[in-house]
Design goal:
The complex is a heterodimer. By secondary structure, chain A is α+β, with helices and mostly antiparallel strands. Chain A has one domain: Alpha-Beta Plaits, CATH 3.30.70. Chain A is built from five helices and four strands, in the order βαββαααβα. Chain A has helices at residues 24-39, 75-84, 86-93, 95-98, 120-133; strands at 4-13, 43-46, 65-72, 107-113. Chain A has a four-stranded antiparallel β-sheet, sandwiched between helices. The two termini of chain A are 21 Å apart. Chain B is of the alpha+beta class. Chain B folds into two domains: 2-98, Winged helix-like DNA-binding domain superfamily/Winged helix DNA-binding domain (Arc Repressor Mutant, subunit A, Orthogonal Bundle); 112-236, no CATH class. Chain B has nine helices and seven strands; from the N terminus they run H-H-E-H-H-E-E-H-H-H-E-E-H-H-E-E. Chain B has a four-stranded antiparallel β-sheet with strand order 4-5-7-6. In chain B, a hairpin with a 2-residue loop joins strand 4 and strand 5. In chain B, helix 2 packs across helix 3 (47-54). Chain B is globular. Chain B starts with a helix and ends in a 5-residue tail after the last strand. Classes of the chains: A alpha+beta, B alpha+beta. At the A-B interface, helix 2, helix 3 and helix 4 of A face helix 5, helix 6 and helix 9 of B.
Chain lengths: 159, 238
């Protein structure tokens, strides 16, 4: 077991209200796609709220901006779910019908200690960091990934 | 600037020479038949199977397969015959499968990959995916109509597999469905999955539409090492 897990946050500006016909397919897909995530190898945790499916009722960044946050055992398990699971890949293919494109990063990845469940403040500060400094060990993307931190007790030990 | 430019040209020549010698290994009809067979199979292929498929003897097939392996075009694994293990089980058999590496040669030098990566990045940033999907669908439909025109009386199945083979997808039957062993856009599909897989799906939807093949529908169903699209038989839909 690795000491670190991978946390992921992504945000999107919806094109219409969640109860509008434009968003109907997205809202209908949330529950089955989340169920696939929950059953996926390497899945640890995802953010949920009591009011809507998944985290769709949470609006920490503004009234139209939806958030999605989860924790995975490693980068490969998250990548497999996001890009190699048919229904999720199909969801992503259709995202422009539901969400505006953004000129700034809208997805951030970072390592957390296994067992730690990040809060939205922590997640949004990682996204700010990515937007300000670009990808680095504290905040990165699928295209520019960074390895988990080396634990202090292991650093500098020569075998 | 001049020096950098000159060393760039030298670097390009070295890559070009290496790539040419790899591809030159395929300049033999038997070897090409063997490569096509191994490449389209997906799983490990034994010498006897490859020899039979290429219509040559086992020794000749073994010679050519090993040349392909030396060039890095196919990879070799070893497997014991089923049901036998331990001492006395005999030597493990050599199995051949297509290598993952890609080889490109363009004479004179052309670099479409960099252009494609930049364009993909911009489509991503500007959210032009719906337009990309519409264009891809139109293009797929045009290729489907062309295939239908060339062979108006051909059964749907043969028409589709023929068109897909010509476009490099390496189609194969999986029950009533058609699956695609090869992704023709592999590098871009790895760097921009939703964008390129969505484009590819639209191309194939267009192909089925243009060729007027009502019995199959294209959908995303990625499997490791294969194309992200399956052409699913409508007989299986409930």
């Amino acid at each position: 077991m690795s000491r670190y897990h991978l946390a992921e946050l992504n945000i999107g500006t919806a094109r219409a209200a969640t109860d509008s016909p434009e968003m109907a397919d997205f809202m209908a897909g949330i529950v089955p796609v989340n169920a696939l995530a929950d059953a996926a190898p390497g899945f640890v945790w995802r953010l949920q709220d009591g009011d809507g499916p998944g985290a769709t009722a949470l609006r920490p960044c503004g009234p139209d901006i939806m958030v999605n946050m989860s924790v995975w055992e490693n980068l490969e398990s998250l990548r497999d779910f996001v890009y190699r699971t048919g229904p999720h890949l199909d969801f992503m293919r259709r995202r422009r019908a539901w969400f505006h494109s953004m000129a700034v990063p809208y997805l951030v990845l970072w390592w957390v200690r296994a067992g730690h469940l990040p809060g939205l403040d922590e997640a949004l500060s990682r996204l700010d960091l990515l937007r300000r400094d670009g990808p680095g060990p504290q905040a990165f993307t699928f295209r520019d990934p960074y390895p988990p931190p080396v634990p202090a007790e292991a650093a500098g030990v020569h075998l | 600037m001049r020096a950098a430019g000159a060393s760039g040209i030298v670097g390009f020549r070295i890559i070009l020479v290496t790539e040419i010698s790899v591809i030159a290994v395929l300049d033999d009809p038997v070897r090409r038949r063997l490569y096509d067979y191994v490449s389209a199979r997906g799983d490990g292929v034994s010498r006897s199977e490859a020899a039979q498929a290429a219509g040559v003897g086992r020794t000749l097939a073994a010679f050519h397969l090993d040349r392909l392996a030396e060039a890095g075009l196919v990879e070799v694994t070893f497997a014991r015959p089923a049901g036998r293990s331990g001492p006395g089980a005999g030597r493990p058999a050599k199995l051949y499968r297509r290598a993952a590496a890609e080889h490109h040669v363009s004479v004179p030098p052309r670099d479409y990959r960099t252009a494609a990566e930049l364009l993909a990045e911009v489509v991503d940033l500007t959210g032009a995916e719906p337009e990309l999907q519409r264009s891809a669908r139109r293009r797929g439909a045009a290729s489907g109509r062309a295939a239908r025109r060339q062979a108006p009386g051909q059964p749907d199945d043969d028409l589709v597999t023929g068109a897909l083979t010509a476009q490099g997808y390496q189609p194969y039957r999986d029950g009533d469905d058609v699956r695609l062993r090869n992704c023709p856009f592999h590098v871009l599909a790895s760097s921009h999955p939703p964008l390129i897989c969505g484009m590819n799906l639209a191309l194939l939807e267009g192909l089925l539409e243009g060729a007027a093949v009502p019995g199959l529908s294209a959908r995303l169903d990625p499997r490791p090492g294969e194309c992200c699209v399956v052409l699913a038989s409508k007989n299986n839909e409930h």
